[in-house]
Amino acid sequence: MLPVDDTELYVRDAGGPGRPVVYLNGAYADQKHWKRVIAELGTDYRHITYDERARGKSKRSNDYSFDGALRDLDAVLKARGVEQPPLLVGWSFGGILAWHWTDRHPDRVAGAVIVDAFPLGLTGEAGRERIRKTFRSYRLLLPIAARLGLGARMSADQHADINIELNEIAAASVPVLGRLTRPVRFVLATGDSLGSEAGEMEEGRKVLDEVLAANPNIKLSAKVASNHSKILRNDSPAVARAVRELAVTQGHTAG
């Protein structure tokens, strides 16, 4: 358990001399979702996972902001003594966190793998109201979702606050992605997600086309058949391949 601000984070570190890989979870997910990716990559890497505030085994907090999540990543790297620049692997919320961290700290990152996150989001009053309405409709299911590693130990409105901020940050991220100087690989899903409307996720993924065309440091590693929710479970080999691609560009080879 790692003390950070007013809370404690549950952190696991495989240790060893391999290239550090730090896994950043989906907005309400816990670290268990990375098990298949880690198994695919094997023991040649130093795998570091952790649960964000009020997710998994981490404690609650008074601050669930995106800036708080950036501070958590900084705290984990410092506490685990990660001196060699790590590869960041982020799914959904974690992907957006990964590209913002890479933008702010290019000298501290070897590269990033982004799993089905893209620079588009619901914004404005209509978008905020839609998000709040969606999470309020799930309010009775959220405690069950938290026990399954798919929700946080928060109220429906707190879940919505995180999602509203994330959508606004994602929607403003094209310039951030455009100026990244570290290598980035995207692994994209297909189809819709819980709470999205038909075709909405695919429209979001298309926004990446202009980023891929403008920044040679960013490449699409794979687009897989799984949807947003199942990509880590069903297409972990594609995520692992993207990690290996980046590791090779950084002079690290592994099985």
Automatic annotation (TrEMBL):
UniProt cross-references to InterPro entries, sorted A to Z: AB_hydrolase_1, AB_hydrolase_fold, Carboxylesterase_BioH
Keyword Hydrolase: yes
Taxonomic superkingdom: Bacteria
UniProt keyword terms in alphabetical order: Hydrolase
SUPFAM superfamilies referenced in this protein's UniProt entry, alphabetically: alpha/beta-Hydrolases (SSF53474)
GO terms assigned for molecular function: hydrolase activity
Domain AB hydrolase-1: 20-136
A Pfam family of this chain: Abhydrolase_1
Name of the protein in its database record: Alpha/beta hydrolase
